[in-house]
Amino acid sequence: MLTSRQEKILKVIVEEFIKTAEPVGSKLLVEKYGINYSSATIRNEMNYLETEGLLEKTHTSSGRVPSTLGYRYYVEHLMDVDDSTDTKYELQTVMRENNVPLEDVIQRSCDILSNMTNLTSVVLGPDANRQTLAHIQLFPLDSNSCVAVFITDQGHTENKTFRFEDQITIEDIQNCTNILNDRLAGTPINEIVEKMNELKPILAYSVKKHEALFNAFMQAFIKFASDNVYYSGASNMLYQPEFADIEKMRNIMKMLEDSKLWRSLGDNENRLKLQTSNNNELVWFDDMAVVSSKFKIGDEEGQLMVVGPSRMDYNKVVKMLDFASEFIESQYNKRIK
What we know:
Blueprint: H1 4-20, H2 26-31, H3 39-51, E1 55-57, E2 64-66, H4 68-78, H5 85-94, H6 102-117, E3 120-124, E4 133-142, E5 145-152, E6 157-163, H7 170-184, H8 192-206, H9 210-225, E7 229-232, H10 246-256, H11 259-263, E8 272-275, E9 280-285, E10 288-297, E11 300-309, H12 314-336
Antiparallel strand pairs: 1-2, 3-7, 3-11, 4-5, 5-6, 8-9, 9-10, 10-11
Helix pairs in contact: 1-3, 1-4, 5-6, 5-12, 6-12, 7-8, 8-9
C-alpha cells in the first residue's frame, strides 16, 4: 500500500489527466491543487510512483501520466463514486411509458449512457442460442403487409416485416406461420435453421409461394440466432486524443464489430480485471478501458458496457452503469408481475 501522501498525489494526477489528457507535473500540483509539499518532495514521490509502475513519464514533457496499474489502484482505493442523479432522472423520464418493449428499454439505456459519457456504449443481450422458440405471432398491418414476431421461452423477440405482392397472400403467410409453430416450438434457436431445411418439402406441399416465404423466414431466423449486440456512440471514439492515429482507430472499429470479443472480454487472464460494486467489472487493454455491468432478464443475463480510453471518468461511469442495470431489471420485473 502507498502512504497517504503518495495516494493523494496519485489521485490528483489521475483526476487531472482524466480531465485534460495532458501530462501532470509537480508545479501544477502545487499551483492548481495547493498540495502542501515542496516541489522537490512531490517530484520524489512521483519518481517512486513511477518505479512502482503506477505512473509513466512521457517523451514530450517532464510530467507524468497514469499507467494501467495506476488506474487500477485509483479505482480500487481512491475513487469517489458519483451519485449519478442526472442519469437516474433521464432514464426515468425516457422510460416513463409502460408500453415500451423491453428491448427498446435496453437500447435506449445504452444510448443514454453513450450520450452522457461521450464514450461508446455496448449492450450484450441475453444469448439467443441458449433459448428455445416459444412461438411466432402474426400481426396484419394493412392489406399488403404484416409483421411476424418470433418469441423465445425467455421473452426475447425478433420481428420480420412482410410486404407481399399480389401473388403472396396473407393466408399463405399464416399457413407458413402455423406450420413453423407446429414443427419448431421448443426448438433451440441455434438448431432452427437446420430444422427449417427439413421443413421445406412440407411448406412446398402446403403453401403456394413457399420459396419466397421460406427464404424470408430463414433470413429472420438467421438474424435471430446471431449474437444480440447493440452499439451506441461508436463515433465518440473519433474525438478522443488517444485514438487520433488512423491505424489505431481502424483497429478499434474492427473490434466494435466483433461480438465474440465482447462476450469473452473477461476471460483472458493477461488482461487486468477488477470487480467493483454490484456486478461491475473493469478490463483494461491496448490503451482502452471497458466498464461492464450485468443485468438479469429472467434466467438469462445481459451486459451493459462503456468503452473508451483508459483516461475515462471511472467514478461517473461505474455509478451510471450500476443504475442503468438496476433500472433494466426493475422494468423487467414490473412486466412479469
